[in-house]
Amino acid sequence: MSRQELISPEGLRVDGRRANELRRISCRASVLNSADGSAYYEQGNTKVLVAVYGPREPRNRSLAQQDHATINVEFNIAPFSTSERRKRSKGDKRLLEISSFVKQTFEGAIQTAIYPRSQIDIYIHLLQHDGGTLETCINAATLALVDAGISMMDYVCACTAGFIDETPILDLNFVEESSIEVPNLTVAIMPRNGNIALLQMESKLHSSKLEDVMELAVEGCKHIHRKLDQAVLVAAKDLADKLSN
Amino acid sequence: MLRNKSFVKRTRKGNIVRTVKEHYLRDDIACGYEKCTSKVCENARKEAEDQGKTTANGINLAAPLSASPRTAVEWGPHYLVPDTNAFVNQIDIFERPIINNVIVLSTVLDELRGLSMAVYNRVRVIIKDSERRWFVFSNEHHRETFIDRQTSESPNDRNDRAIRVAVKWLCKHLVGSSITPILVTNDENNIRKACEDGVNVCRMEGFLKIYSEHPELFDMMGSVSINDRNSADPGWSGYPEYLTPVQIQAGLNSGMFLQGTLQIAPYNYLEGSIYTEFPDGKERRVLILGRKDMNRAIQGDKVVIQILPKSSWRVAPSTALVDEDEDIVPDVSEKSGTTDTTSIVPDTGANSEESRKRARLSQKSTANKAQEKKSGVTIVGSDSSEQDEKSQPEPEPIKPADVGDDLSEGEPTGRVVGIVRRNWRSYCVFLDPNFMHKGVRTSNAPVSVSVLAMDRRIPKIKIRTRQLDILSGQRFVVAVDSWPKESRYPLGHFVRALGDAGDKATETEVLLLEHDVPFQPFTQNVRSDLPAEGEKWIFNPVRDQVSSGRRRDLRDINVCSIDPPGCTDIDDALHAVELPNGNFQVGVHIADVTNFVKPNTAMDKEAAYRSTTVYLVDRRIDMLPELLGTNLCSLRANVDRLAFSCIWELDPEANIVDVTFHKSVIHSKASLTYEAAQNRIDDPSMTDAITNSIRSLNMLAKKLRKRRMEAGALTLSSPEVRFRLENDSQDPVDVEMKALKETNALVEEFMLLANISVAGKIYQHFPDSALLRRHPEPPAQNFDNLQHALKPLGIQLETGSSLALAQSLDRAVLPSDPYFNNLLRILTTRCMMQAQYFCSGTCTPEEFRHYGLATQIYTHFTSPIRRYADVMVHRLLHASIDRDAVYGSELTDKTKMNEQCEILNHRHRMAQQAGRSSVELYTNLFFKGKTVEEFGYVTQVLQNGFSVLIPSYGIEGIVYTASKDNTKDPAALEYEKESHTLTSPDKKSTIGLFNRVQVILKVDDKPVSANVSSMRRKLSLQLVEPQIPRLSISFDELKALRAAASATKQNEQDEEKIVEAVTKHPEQIRNV
């Protein structure tokens, strides 16, 4: 059996996108009332819900840091997120890996020094899975943190890019991601100064090609930044409307 | 716009899950018409222009459809939009270059990929050819042509509708241009609906009428309906129906059925077999005998079989030529072909008890199946379902799990119940002699004829043709379309003519086609990847990175090359220098092909596709364009050439002290032939640097060789001959055995050393994706027959390890017959497994072993000009030694590497066979019209014949002991199982392995079209000695033949030598 053609000679990918196109993004902040900040974020068929609590008193005193806040990230995949129901235990290494990536990313972006002896909890729930988990988690968490009013240096926007048949492609979906030979690069940047908050890659890619792929991913991040910005504006307008009433 | 596509899919585990995929619809998809004025199309054209996607003659690749396409009376200027079945059935027509301006819908492409990858790839090749002006319209992603499947619609209906909608949209879109898109389909339903929708539609026949100046296109039409062709075939009851895919799957899961690739015996097209893994994990062979049980499967098809009851297992020898299990239906056409002496299948109507019972069984089981289908009971897995309901108890089919290793009850036989994948290709054929010259034909109406394939494993194929008179005596290509169960033979269509049978050019093309050797000249695309300087290319220290230190300058070293005479593609050169510490520096320098062939260029892809250079007797089919192969890469003397060098420090005992690899530039001081090099070694007066270097090499090579032999490397043998060709006509005038000199061994030894060193290096750096070569150990039972035959001679082969085998081969010498050892080595070679390329990530390190060379790891590095494997190894090695080397997934991707390995193995095998066939062709040309008497050795004993190897010509042929009509006439020799010999009824003479016999060789000199055997160009052998009544040629005849031979001798001075040799030999033999 021949392998699936991930990008046709006509330049269309399996789902009809061109190489440099993102999937459709829709997002909304303030979706949960009980949380301090929350966001719902969709990128294609990948859907996540994030709730942020804090800054608040650490549940465990020993965790408290004298000079800055601790960030706690919990990541969960809903058993119904794929068509084959599968429950994951809490100690699943895949979950821990993603949560630690998200944690590291935001430790650099949140101004933790202004919240000493406190804890910020980020709870991420993946509702539907179709590739690009890490990027959607980071983008959604950014939105929820902004919604919670936590001081950050900047937004953190993440995007994936891969490399198929000599062409860099943006925003891999599940089919593209699960093909082993496709390198999968996730980049998170802080768009204002272009600093890179996270750079992570699976599979192999020759270093000479890395630059092109990264450039494309950064382009994608910038686009996502505009989307998040709009969502924040909408949320702020909502809030303003509520306040003025 | 976004749609979600949802479908149900079975996972690998067998669970059924629903998959949801995103499906984006776009509005920026152009129509492909080169002058379209709509905004979208203009933008697409402009973008393509900006990216340089235009061809030299102004075709924009984003819009290749011509503004002035072909015009038909009925429709005016038009584009064709074929549907899926049009491609599947008529791909040969679409491949004709006259058919251009075709729109391929993405719906059609998707369907094609599901139906037949082969056709899909062929369509893709056409689309790629910009001259053809084919265009892919991605209607599935176009906002206005995408349609959702309606609840009442089947996926097929939905796709048909999608095609109609797309054509309709194109129609509307192109309205301003006066060009009409026409849907080409043969589906009645589709045609009707299209007419209702107002879509222009035509049938395949209708569209061919437009090309009325090409009448051969009609012959190329694939058969769609069989009613008209299946002319009366009395007594043919039809084949059993295949089981449904669900039944097959269930049967495979429950272990009732087995799956494997059908291999037909080369000498009997009614004996097939599959090698497959049984439930106990062992691989065994299952025979599939007779047309009915093969049930329309052709050589290479992947089939599902059921094991037959033990009563129908076969007890006779496995290598039997003739098998009694012929269908009970007499084959009319075959019977009339009595002139055919080589078609081996007996045509007896084989009314043996056995086959009658079997036929009854298979008919009955068909009936059973039919009944079961009605009652809704599946046959699969329910053991009782095969039970005969009536009084007559029929044995049940056997579960594969119950088949053991004990073959006392015979070999298991099976029956094809379903086809997993067809492996049909185009076949080179000739017309069945029964259909030739049937009087003058008056009308031009097509007639139905059957054709015989050159590959005797392929059954007859029925085609319809209007060019009967032209085709007789010609070779041509046909493709198989279908094999309905009512038809005894598969149905096919004419593709193209090749030329007159017996003509050297035609026959060579036939053998290239039959061995799947790509032999077309290199395309412009490929040639454009050659260095721009062409012949004038010279070494440049800056460009070639000597200045930057990435390539070493070794031009001052005394390097020379040693090759066979007339060799123009010199892959390798050598040097040896004695170092001050008494050690030797030895270098093997291999042409640096990868400096010119960069990954993923057109040239690289072509080379990967060809995989190897094919050597025929009279020509060479290159893997790389001539400029590289014989000039820029070839390490010729006295020019600077780029090389990849492997340099060792060896101590005087030839142990490796150190090894390094470099890209380098060398300046070969001499290119010698084996003979010249040998002369230099032998001539004590020569003391120049080159000669000394060769002497050192020779000294070290001998030590290396000795060590290798001690480790258990095998010296095997194969009969190899070289033809001396007449200069002008390239007709063979003489045959000689290839001679081996000491210097051959010298070169070989260092090539092996280089290959082994490189293999270790690349495996160390790419443990998952190194390209290696292994040679599995042959299982002991491969030697059974040979051991049996050796027993009376008091010789025992130790097959435990390669070392033991090598030693026992060395001991196996008969003082009475100097050729015996050589013969034994030839036969031992045939018991070996095939060496193969593989990717290191797919095998365990224990399996890497190369049995024949007795080395733990091996690869091919030394012939990159003629083998693609070496090109890949060069890239891997370069990536291992140069940190700055740029490489992509082609070196690291295990899957891709593995796929390429399979192509390499296939091409390698085919190239070898093509080479052998070419020798055979020339042998036949050489013997044409001659009658030669020669001695030979029996190499194989079969049930109704034995094969004889004739050492002086290196050819092998079969002597038949039973004629085709062996039921009327008892065989002159009977097969005896215990001794594996053939014995005459009076027990006076026997024929067994290694026996020395005297035979007469001749090629039928009759007009080529007269009979099947000459169409298949077979050499025929007749026994002279020992004299066996009714088999050997009589003395009178012999005398006449000898007289004729000496007459030829007087006539043709050229052949004097050979005839002399021939006439001299008999006495010698009798003296022995």
Automatic annotation (TrEMBL), chain A:
InterPro entries assigned to the protein according to its UniProt record, in alphabetical order: ExoRNase_PH_dom1, ExoRNase_PH_dom2, ExoRNase_PH_dom2_sf, PNPase/RNase_PH_dom_sf, Ribosomal_Su5_D2-typ_SF, RNase_PH
GO cellular component: cytoplasmic exosome (RNase complex); nuclear exosome (RNase complex); nucleolus
Domain Exoribonuclease phosphorolytic: 21-150, 154-220
GO biological process: nuclear mRNA surveillance; poly(A)-dependent snoRNA 3'-end processing; rRNA catabolic process; U4 snRNA 3'-end processing
Gene3D superfamilies in the record: GHMP Kinase, N-terminal domain (3.30.230.70)
UniProt keyword annotation of Cytoplasm present: yes
Keyword terms of this UniProt record: Cytoplasm, Exosome
Sample GO molecular function, one term: RNA binding
Pfam families: RNase_PH, RNase_PH_C
Protein's cellular compartments: Cytoplasm; Nucleus, Nucleolus
PANTHER family for this protein: EXOSOME COMPLEX COMPONENT, EXOSOME COMPLEX COMPONENT RRP41
Assembly and oligomerization: Component of the RNA exosome complex. Specifically part of the catalytically inactive RNA exosome core complex (Exo-9) which may associate with the catalytic subunits RRP6 and DIS3 in cytoplasmic- and nuclear-specific RNA exosome complex forms. Exo-9 is formed by a hexameric base ring of RNase PH domain-containing subunits and a cap ring consisting of CSL4, RRP4 and RRP40.
Protein family: Belongs to the RNase PH family.
Protein's recorded name: Ribosomal RNA-processing protein 41
Lineage, uppermost ranks: Eukaryota, Fungi, Fungi incertae sedis, Zoopagomycota, Kickxellomycotina
TrEMBL record, chain B:
Keywords tagged on the record: Cytoplasm, Exonuclease, Exosome, Hydrolase, Nuclease, Nucleus, RNA-binding, rRNA processing
Localization per Swiss-Prot or TrEMBL: Cytoplasm; Nucleus
Lineage: Eukaryota, Fungi, Fungi incertae sedis, Zoopagomycota, Kickxellomycotina
Protein name listed in UniProt: Ribosomal RNA-processing protein 44
Gene3D superfamilies: 2.40.50.690, 2.40.50.700, 5'-nuclease, Nucleic acid-binding proteins
InterPro entries to which the protein is assigned, alphabetical: Dis3_CSD2, NA-bd_OB-fold, PIN-like_dom_sf, PIN_dom, RNase_II/R, RNase_II/R_CS, RNR_Ribonuclease, Rrp44_CSD1
UniProt keyword RNA-binding, yes or no: yes
Biased composition regions of type Basic and acidic residues, renumbered to the chain: 387-399
Gene that specifies this protein: DIS3
GO annotation (BP), single: rRNA catabolic process
Family recorded in the similarity comment: Belongs to the RNR ribonuclease family.
Source organism: Coemansia spiralis
Listed Pfam families: OB_Dis3 (PF17849), PIN_4 (PF13638), RNB (PF00773), Rrp44_CSD1 (PF17216), Rrp44_S1 (PF17215)
Comp. bias intervals (Polar residues): 335-352
Domain RNB: 551-883
Stretches the record annotates as Disordered: 325-414
